[in-house]
Amino acid sequence: TRIRYFEAALGTSEGADDVKEWTNVGTQTSVFWSFGEGATPLPASVKLFLSVRATDDAGHSVEGYSDGIIVDLTPPVPGEIEHALWAYPTASRYTNRVDQAVLRWHSFSDPESGIVHYEYGLSTTPTG
């Protein structure tokens, strides 16, 4: 039999509707919910799951779940940066080399979404 309608919900676990209650979306296969102006915003740093329930003409239902998303509203936590030119084995503010500079950083972190990539620059001023 064909799918009669879908229902969708958003919650803090699979099948939960504690963020957005179950909503009949007809035969649409996507949904847009706004959580702005006057609505309670999505909770940050909490894993949220989209749950979808499909019901066919015979009245049979089945549920499926996303693998979850996390709303990340905070920037990464800064780590440590070696702020000098490199004179092996330690960092130095002075060098006699004009053809190279080695930049080094570590311990940057982001508890919600992790670090995806780094960008760097070398400048004569602190903010480049």
Rounded to the nearest angstrom, the distance between the terminal CA atoms is 64 Å
- What percent of residues are in strands? 35-45%
The average pLDDT score comes to 87
Shape: elongated
Question: How much helix, percentage-wise, in residues?
Answer: under 10%
Please, how many domains? 2
Q: How many strand units?
A: 9
Structure description:
By secondary structure, this protein is mostly beta strands. Helices cover 0% and strands 35% of the residues. The protein contains no helices and nine strands. It has strands spanning 3-11, 20-26, 47-56, 61-65, 69-70, 80-82, 85-87, 90-92, 104-106. The strands form three sheets. Strands 1, 2, 3, 4 and 5 form a five-stranded antiparallel β-sheet that branches. It has a two-stranded antiparallel sheet with strand order 6-9. A two-stranded antiparallel sheet has the order 7-8. It is elongated, with a radius of gyration of 25 Å.
List the helices and strands and how they pair.
Blueprint: E1 3-11, E2 20-26, E3 47-56, E4 61-65, E5 69-70, E6 80-82, E7 85-87, E8 90-92, E9 104-106
Antiparallel strand pairs: 1-2, 1-3, 3-4, 3-5, 6-9, 7-8
Gist?
By secondary structure, the chain is an all-beta fold. Helices cover about 0% and strands about 35% of the residues.
